[in-house]
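During the practical work, I selected for study one protein's amino acid sequence and its backbone structure tokens, as given directly below:
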Amino acid sequence: MSEQAAILVQKAAEELRVLAEFAKYEDQSEAEVIVRLEHWKQRASETLSVLRENLRSQEALSSQTKALVVYSTAPFDGDGAWITDSSRGTAQDILTSLGTPEIDVLERILRDFVKPVFILNPHPHINAETGRTLHRSAGGALGDLDYLEGQVWKTHPELFNVLHWCLRQANGQAIERLWHLFVPPTLTYLDDFQAEYKLQGAHLVSQLLRVAPADLLRRTGMDVLLSTSLKICMTFLHNRETPDLIRAVVPVYIQLTTATTNEGSVQRFDQLCSLLGDSIIGNIWIYASREPETIQASIDVIPDIVEVLDVGTVRYLKALVPQLVFPLIPAPENDASNAQRFSSLRALRCVVQACVQRMHGWRGMILEALLKCWVNAVENHTNDNEIGSLKEDIRGTVAFLVTKWRPVAPDIDRELCGVLSLDPGLFGSLLTPILVIKAPTRSERTSEWHPPSGAEVYSASPKIVD
């Protein structure tokens, strides 16, 4: 590569350095600043286009130049207030043209551009030179507070996209060699006191776990440190990012647990129970009960937890079932959205699948909720596609549950026949296709239908039982 071309790359890198004001772009209120930032975005897009053309005429780039090109363009491969559709597309073209980066290129990016920023606020629980967990916090008792001061890295909003790109390109060998360069900034994001940075940290950890060997996590003590940090993320309620944080953290926690514990082990069971029992039921459902978006996010992740906890979910049925059926029952105090109803139906199916042998005693409460939700949907005369989808989901859920319950509750068809005979026009399309016996006519019925024996009495508001 010619010296002139290297100078052009260096100049482009300086022009593409993301302005610190973009870190707080949403809080900007001064028109002059906003206009200046918008002009910068347009200039950055033009600079990327020129850089792409210059690189096309170059046959080979040195590792140092590749690292500089990546550090300058990777910030535009993702999301951010400084990114336009045009700049994102151009940056992706440049990064693709470079091919898969060598470990040496990744090391130069992390060592020369990322580490110097984060080393100014070293994480108190990580050895910055080895990436291992420290036995005692650096800086003493106040170390956790000291490293939150200054936080120069927050004036570099581009660093998240750079780290995320590097993790996406890394393989197992690169992670082993560059562990000490990946871990400190990743944990700095995850352990920050602001939810938006914790969310970014969760995304970085997800990418890290994708390629990090389980033995490396255990050897460096990161399995315990990451588990603790992820659980702390679940306590950050009442923030705008809380729903997204829950949806991001729970799959990562499960990913970490399954990677570092043996299947069927007590350790795995305890960690999953801690996630469901302590973090969701004992925390989110109690302290964020009046925040529907947060509750929905917690219900969205229930199937992921149940899938790995399996029959161990039985321990929490007294809390799970009332919470999941509550959004389905129309009531003045229930303002659940259809999106939350869809989430509850999906979670119910997963819970019944995992705990079918212990679910027959709950079928009265569950069927009552499903039938009331069906009636409410049928009587909603709007031609809304969402209502139609909800009815289909209810129908599919009832069919699924009845199929699962028949071996443990042989009277389920007779009970549903009693419901159908009450109003064939209302319940016909819901129950007729799944019943294996004929429903009695009104003249054949000698008594009113009653809920099955042992059915729980439903309360209008969910009750959490330890």
In short: Confidence is low (pLDDT under 50) at residues 444-449, 451-466. The chain is about 60% helix and 0% strand. The radius of gyration is 28 Å.
